[in-house]
Design a protein that fits this description.
The protein is built from nine helices and eight strands. It is α/β, with parallel strands linked by helices. The chain is globular, with a radius of gyration of 18 Å. It has an eight-stranded mixed β-sheet, with helices on both faces. It starts with a strand and ends with a helix.
Length: 268
Amino acid sequence: MWKTVPVAVPESRVNPQFPALDYEYVLMEPVSARPPPLVVYIHGGPHSCCVAEFQAHTAGLCVCGYAVLMVNYRGSVGFGQHSVDSLPGNIGRQDVHDVQAVAEQVAASGAVDARRVVVMGGSHGGFLTLHCIAQSGRRFYRAAVARNPVVDVASMLGATDIPDWAYVESGMEFDAGAVPTAEVYADMLKRSPLSGVDGIETPLLLLVGGQDRRVPASQGLQLSRALEARNVPLRVLWYSDCSHPLSDVRAEADGFINVVKWFDEHII
């Protein structure tokens, strides 16, 4: 079963430049005699969206007994240009709060088991996954999965194949010939999950593609070292021949199996 639900933005979270925006979420629920555990499944981009159609990963999670929540936070495509334009300069805040507000609302509804909530996402969805667990901790999420996540926009800037993304999503003009200043690096770091790493306690499964040029593998390594130093429960799956999507059939199958195992182990 699935449903699409509109979400009104409360006054405390209204973007003053784009005050008329709302957003929506898609909730998929398995057939279950009791409230199922919930996977908060966050899309990347950030300017993409989750759609109400068959997707192997989300359908597979439902077959495994999980409800799946997909939030089309402000900035997602399909909701007008103003929605897209509202997010640059607000990453790590507006998108995080949109996702977390809906996750808490659905968890409190009684439709799912609020004691067994997990979260996952890739790329910018991984960026949001890390922000969510840093800001909410183990009080809300029992486990997390991040695939090739953006960990530190500043350190990614010189290695990614889309440096314009780092500037634009941070709310800055992109100039291919410009040398970043200390202020630019500081602003990008401030928006990044790495700046809140001390708040991460949630067990994390990290999936990294060794050939990723979009979000270089060094991002995952940077995160893993920081979490290991803080004794955070962590497992890293390294796919040496894969690029950003981890779409090789063997990697995709191995990743899905290990994601479900990771969640199953931590919601007991």
